[in-house]
């Protein structure tokens, strides 16, 4: 009974997160923020606002870039996911087919970063944050360890794999006092921001 309840809770949490992401996506893709707040749809003023927006080059140009980037990402995903393309790539690259798919996805995202002028994502991080990342394993490694160890039985080969990967992940995860001080400072900073009164609240 307990495992079933855990699965239901995890599924419900996943649904809530996915639903919330969908709501945020709809809000983000709305033209309302671009128009500075237009009346509710259906009225003549609202239709005039849409027509004005669709004739404004300052709005159409960014929308065209967004459309192009979206089509690049969707096109790459859809084209490389077809059986014909996968068979062709597998014929020449074998087991590297999936790796090539991921690499092309990363390339599409790099084009997105380049067009927006964002550069390398890690270049925006502070030296102390980069130092922490070099000592810190990604949280997804906890999931990997769970998959490796939480099984009904462990064969000899599976046990060897689990031991070696656990040792590898453990040895590479080496936070020191400087990293801990940085994490403590970041925690205090976030707590300070959360404790500040919001706009419109009484002082």
Keywords:
10 helices, 203 residues, mainly alpha
Individual helix count: 10
According to DSSP, the number of beta strands is: 0
Q: Give the ordered list of helices and strands.
A: HHHHHHHHHH
* Mean pLDDT figure: 75
The radius of gyration is: 24 Å
Question: Care to describe what's here?
Answer:
With 203 residues, the protein is mostly helical. 75% of the residues lie in helices and 0% in strands. Helix 4 packs antiparallel against helix 6 and helix 8 runs antiparallel to helix 9.
Overview in brief:
The protein has 203 residues and is mainly α. It has ten helices and no strands.
Write the layout of secondary structure elements.
Layout: H1 2-28, H2 32-35, H3 44-54, H4 57-80, H5 83-93, H6 97-116, H7 127-135, H8 140-149, H9 156-172, H10 177-195
């Amino acid at each position: 009974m307990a495992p079933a309840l855990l699965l239901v809770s995890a599924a419900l949490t996943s649904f809530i997160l996915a639903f919330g992401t969908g709501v945020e996506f709809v809000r983000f893709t709305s033209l309302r923020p671009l128009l500075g707040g237009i009346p509710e749809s259906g009225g003549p003023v609202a239709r005039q606002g849409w027509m004005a927006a669709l004739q404004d080059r300052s709005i159409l140009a960014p929308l065209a870039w967004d459309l192009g980037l979206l089509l690049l990402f969707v096109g790459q995903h859809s084209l490389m996911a077809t059986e014909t393309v996968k068979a062709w790539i597998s014929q020449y690259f074998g087991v590297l087919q999936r790796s090539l798919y991921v690499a092309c996805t990363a390339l599409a995202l790099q084009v997105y970063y380049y067009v927006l002028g964002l550069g390398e994502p890690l270049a925006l991080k502070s030296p102390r944050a980069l130092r922490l990342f070099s000592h810190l394993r990604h949280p997804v490694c906890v999931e990997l360890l769970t998959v490796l160890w939480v099984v009904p039985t462990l064969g000899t080969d599976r046990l060897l794999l689990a031991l070696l990967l656990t040792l590898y992940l453990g040895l590479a995860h080496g936070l020191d006092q400087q990293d801990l001080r940085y994490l403590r400072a970041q925690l205090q900073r976030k707590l300070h921001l959360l404790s500040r009164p919001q706009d419109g609240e009484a002082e």
